[in-house]
Amino acid sequence: MTDKDTNVNEVVPDFNIDGECCIEEPENDEIYFIKSLLKVGRINLCYSGIRKKTNKEICIKPLSVNGHLMIREILNFFKSEPEKCKVFLPIIDIVIADSIRTNFVVLEGTFINLAETFNIKDKEIVDLQHIFLKHSLRATKFLHQNGFIHGNLSITSFWVKFNSEKEAKCIFHHKYIGEILLADLEYCIKIKDNGDNSKIKKISQQRITSKPKSYKYCALGLHKGEKMCMKFDFESIYYILVQLYEKKLPWDKFSDDERLIRKEKQKMRSPTYDFYRNIPEHIAEIVCFIDKKSPDKVPDTEDIKKRFYHYLKKKTFYDEDNYILGDSDYTRTAEYYRLIRKRREESNEPFSKSIYEEIIGEGKKQKKNSPDK
C-alpha cells in the first residue's frame, strides 16, 4: 500500500443543507428535492429526497471526481445486463450540479440502510431466509465475473427492505428482511477490459494499491500490505455477516486501532475463538475457505455455498443418522468448545481457553488409558 496523501479526486465534497433544497437536471427535465441527511456510517454521506417527476422517495449521494467517473462506467455496463442487475440498488440518475460544484448519484429511496437496522428499537431484525448471505454473494460474484472488484464493502454498502406482510402476521416483535441490495458502486475497481478509457484504468490502478478507507471491514491481507483482490470482497462480507449475527464486531471497542484490529482478525480464524456466540459454526468457518482462495483468480463460491447449505440441512434434519456428514475438524472442534463453555457458564463455573485445553487433555488421557473392549 502507499503512504501518499489522499488523492484529491477521491475526496467526497462536503455538502451541508439548511432545510430543503433542490437539484435540477435540465437535460432530462428532472428536479430532485433534498430533504434531510441520512445516517449511513462515518464515510458515506447520503440524503433523502423526492423526485418531482414521480413524487417518489430517493436517496442522493455526493460523489468524488473519481467516483463520478467510475459509477458512469458501471452504469453503461449495467445497461447491457438489466435483469442481472436487480441485486444492486437502482441508479436513477447521475447529476452534475455545476452551481455547487458537486456531482451526485440519485438512487432508489424506499430502502433502509442496513447499518440503520441496529437503531430500530423494540423490534428484532430477522433474516429467516438468509437473504444477506445469498444476495451479497450473488451481487459480488456478478461484479467479479465482469471484471470489477467492489473494494470497499461495509455494512453501509447494503440497503434493506422488510417483508411487511410477514411482519403483520407475526405475533412477535420481529421485522423480517425481505430484500437486500448492494450499493456504493462508485468505489469499485475495474481490473480488465479498460480499452481506451485511460481515466478508469488510472483510477483502478491507484485504488488497487491504496489504503482501505476503514479497517473495520477490510480483509486481513490489506493489513499486511497486500494489494486489493476479488477474494477480499468476500472477506468483507464475512465480517458483515459476523456483525449481523453477533450485533457487533469484536474490534468495535478498538475504534480504528489498526494493530489491535489486525490481531483480532488473525485470532478469529480459530474454531475456539471465544467471541462467537450466535453465528453457527459452519458459517463461522467460511472465512477459512476464503483464506484458501487464490488472489489472482475470480473466486468460486461453490465451497461457501456447500458449507452454508450443509448447515441448513443439519439444522433441519438434526436427528437424522447422517447429519454429521459434511462436518469438518473446524466445525466439530467449534461445536465441542461451545458446548463445554455453555455447560460451565450454566453451572457458574469458570471457563477460559486454557480450561478448555485442560478438559480436552484430560479426555484424551482417559481415552488412552481405557481398556480396549
Automatic annotation (TrEMBL):
This is Protein kinase domain-containing protein. It comes from Strongyloides papillosus. PROSITE patterns: PROTEIN_KINASE_DOM (PS50011). SUPFAM superfamilies: Protein kinase-like (PK-like). GO terms for molecular function: ATP binding; protein kinase activity. InterPro entries: CK1_Ser-Thr_kinase, Kinase-like_dom_sf, Prot_kinase_dom. Signal peptide: none annotated. Residues 1-312 form the Protein kinase domain.
